[in-house]
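Protein 1 of 2
SEQ + STRUCT:
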Amino acid sequence: HQREPGQKGSGGGAETHMASDGREWHGRNCGLGEHGEIAGGTEANALALTPSATRAGDKAPLERLLMSAIERPSVRAGGRFPAAAHSDIPVTMQGVVDLAALKDMLAKSVSVGGRALVSIMLANNETGVIQPVREAANLVHEAGGLLHVEAVQGPGRMELDMMALGADLLT
């Protein structure tokens, strides 16, 4: 017999309390104001990676999805971007996003009149590498793009502040 969290019966109240505690923790510790709630990282990435994502006052569509070559499968699937719009940002031998390559890719996108959504993981659970997200955010924003940070490995292990990271979208 399976129950939904919050369903009446043995344990439902405790599950509801745990979910509520989780929402409060994220609100306090991730620098979030308004935020939505979803089932998990795969769903969150599919929803975040969309050409219609915007920042306040900016309505121009996003033409490209640039993602680091080491992203998780749920990011590599590309959300709502067509496959032809996906491009990989190379990483160094140390597994760090190549910021010079990112800058070149963003310049190329701007030169043809397009904007990009860039997706970079915060930390790699296999290598321990922490990506230069703030530096990437600066490059992305200078080019008029948006930054998505997949931060599933961050909570509880490191400080996670969406504003400090410069992320427009955080999953």
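Protein 2 of 2
SEQ + STRUCT:
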Amino acid sequence: TEMQRVIDLLIQNDVIEQSKLDLFINRYGQERVNIENLIKVKIINVVKMEEALIRELRLQSIEMDDLESINGIDTTRILKRTAKNLDIEYVEINDVDLDHKLIERLPLKQLMRYNALPLYEDDESRVTVAFANPSDFEAKGAIERFFRGKIMVVAVANAKMIKRELMKLKT
């Protein structure tokens, strides 16, 4: 499962000590092993966990989608930290007045594939595009090609929100 993959990654990143995890399993049973419980019993330090997850997201060994459904992982906080680390904007898509004409200039298939959503263009010919994974260079390159002569400003947004907006366009 996604949870098991994340726990394995956290062990590899020295966020979870295997010996402490084994003690937990002996005491409470394998079925009680989840991120939330491991945080409660202080086996996981949240800050260390988030730093490790940000690293793994950058390496693309996990996707933000994988983390969204796991209790105990605050993906919004991870996105905001990622934005700060990359010196880009974190965008709450619900708060943005989307420019649908701008979105329609790009093939929906490409936007879906790269989990990207053009948001708006400013007076300086800058186009702001939200990506679920702003560290994905292939995605940024592919989307940027559609904006010849414009400067693409990369932002980060929640993957589910990007998908939701793109699904609306399908209909």
